[in-house]
Amino acid sequence: MAAISMRNIVKRYDDGYQAVRDVSLDIADGEFVILVGPSGCGKSTLLRMIVGLEDITSGEMVIGEQRVNDKAPRDRNLSMVFQNYALYPHLTVFENIAFPLRLKKVRDDEVKAKVTEVAAVLELTENLDRKPANLSGGQRQRVAMGRAIVRDADAFLFDEPLSNLDAKLRGQMRTEIARLQRRLGTTTVYVTHDQTEAMTLGDRIAVLRKGELQQVGTAHQLYEEP
Ligand code: ADP
Ligand code: ADP
């Protein structure tokens, strides 16, 4: 786990558009922060700068003890779950979840132990031998989550992970994500434009508007006080 500290973060795209304007935000070790705001306000851009998929124009990004501005994504030890959660169609659920461990050449017995544990938490034990095509949308999303949490990342980053699911599944998955984060206690940044997710999931909510951080606080502070 690691704290994430953003100092005066700016993102100016090549065409000159300033998508993120002077954002400073401190996320504590183990904290769950929700990033909300209307479409185009810069949520994905900010998340991609944390992971390293987007260059930082100016400012400082510190994860744990390290300044990561110039670090490649693979050197940041973070796990990201995307909206479209692409799974490997030719691999079983077991091998999809195991994938990050295979890349790191983890020993077979250790892979088996880890994947079994993660599958139990995500209630995927019965589905380990199936291919993604034979799973429901919610199961596929859980596999994507399993792949993200199977290795000990310093933080989890979620980019609208539930937006492609129907309302019922979204509700179920919301409960599961909350349970999972409490259990693992891993620092999490979660992007959504869904008010219910924002109000129920995180420790704190950060509201972005036109690339600027407008408000940061608990759901109670943001939505229930005048
Ligand atoms: P959000 O995730 O909040 O919907 P984004 O971070 O995707 O917002 O985008 C923020 C703004 O930056 C938008 O106006 C978007 O059009 C713009 N933008 C995103 N990517 C690029 C890019 N590669 N080049 C130029 N502008 C971009
Ligand atoms: P979202 O709203 O889900 O964040 P978008 O559909 O806005 O995603 O963007 C999808 C992709 O298009 C992203 O990779 C983003 O960087 C790119 N993009 C968005 N806006 C622009 C833009 N104005 N110019 C160039 N690329 C853009």
From TrEMBL:
The keyword Transport applies. GO terms for molecular function: ATP binding. It comes from the Bacteria. Keywords: ATP-binding, Cell membrane, Membrane, Nucleotide-binding, Translocase, Transport. Residues 4-226 form the ABC transporter domain. This is Sn-glycerol-3-phosphate ABC transporter ATP-binding protein UgpC. It comes from Luedemannella flava. The gene is ugpC_2.
